[in-house]
Amino acid sequence: MVKYIKHVKVYSFAELSEDAKEEAKRWYMNDETRSEDLTSDFESDIDCIFPNSDLNVQWSLNSCQGDGVNIYGSLNLEDILTLPGSGRALEFDWSQGYLSEKEILTMRFYMSAYRDSVDIPINRRYTYCMADSLDLSEDFRYELENMEFRNIKIDVLEKVEKLVKQIFHQLCMQFEKAGYTYLYEISDEEMEECCSANEYYFYEDGSWFHDTGMEADNTEKPEELKEYWDNDGCLYRNLDRDCSCDSFEEEIEGPVGRYEVIFDYMENRYYCFIDAVSLEAAMFTFFKYHPHITYDMIVDHMEI
Hints:
alpha+beta, 2 domains, rod-shaped, five-stranded mixed sheet
């Protein structure tokens, strides 16, 4: 079996050039799973704000006509009546006091007689908010009259309807704004934090390094390679003769010659020049002073 080892040079996000960082950001924000994550975030917020309702979300954020966010499904009106000051969504605390205690009791009475929920329709053509299509006041009035209720408080029904529409419009707008930011904007700090957490690495041009079974070498450069000096892009080192690497016969008789060992480590090529009495002694010397270099890294070795 022949085993090949491929070394590639990859970079953390912080190490990239400015142009490469922009390329890395484009790759990250084009990830389809981000859309799934955004939907999941929306649904989590909806479940928190409306715990007794059965609501879903649809959205499209491509800056096209009809794009937006729509929350649809069955809304339990008790979630609206208890929302102000509940801590479930501080951004809606403005509605605290909008309905008086008497109006809330009246609405709960009507809910107990007819129904405690209303349906927000799905948008079957686009994805903008459909809360305006809600006709809560007229629906409750019609049904309560059929049940022979007298002196129905239409103003209370209209106030509840207006409150539902305002809350849903505000939430859909918040989601839309947050969605555009999430999908199309990311700071260097956020990107660096994300890449660090997920161990993302990139090529020099900012394209993603896809680990297809290769193990990252996170170790520092071996100590012996720090002894090499850079001569116009070539890495050199000289090793004097080490008699402990000679055989007995060589130690007595052999003249000292000059040998060269060429090897690759990561993406760099190294040239080691060794004084020794033979090629065998030179290789013994080389490996003695290069404990982290293996034979399959050697490109060539010769007497010069």
